[in-house]
Amino acid sequence: MHLSCSSCPVATTYSGDVLSQAPNVQGGATGRIELVTDEITESDGSASDKEDKPESSSDFKRFATAAAAIISILIGIQALTGWNPLKVLVNPSPPAPPPSPPNFWIETQDWAGPCDSGCLVRATFRNVGGDGSAIATFVVRSSTSDLAECSTVLPRTVRGGIVEASCTAYSSTLANYRGALFLYVSTRR
Fold it and tell me: What pTM was estimated for this model as a whole?
């Protein structure tokens, strides 16, 4: 069987098991896709030869012609665009997983005491999740209750990136408190 496409931007030839392409030098506004079978039959040209052929041979020729036309069209698409439609059908790529959310771990935390006029609290965060930002909340606590808190936005940080944040926690209860203080730091998206 031999197939050729003279109207394709890249001349395409299929012969046996070999598919070849070459720049089409014929050009032209019209062309044709040609399917030639390499069957050798003995015939004396009589009408009875045509009647002896089984119908399945005719069906095979129609199928082969349609298959050849589809292959030529797909090769033409690849020649024009560089995109191989068969690659998508044969080996589709799986969808990309959704990006992971940011996840900030606290590297260091401290504050500049005493807290008479508010506590300047600060911390260093490392993002161990995906790219993104979060809100850091600093809570100044006594051994029995929360005395003051403040929050700040951690800027967009890439995975593995480190960012520092600070804010001032203040309340009248904190200003009058005399005792041990603890700093609690948390993040949320």
Answer: 0.50
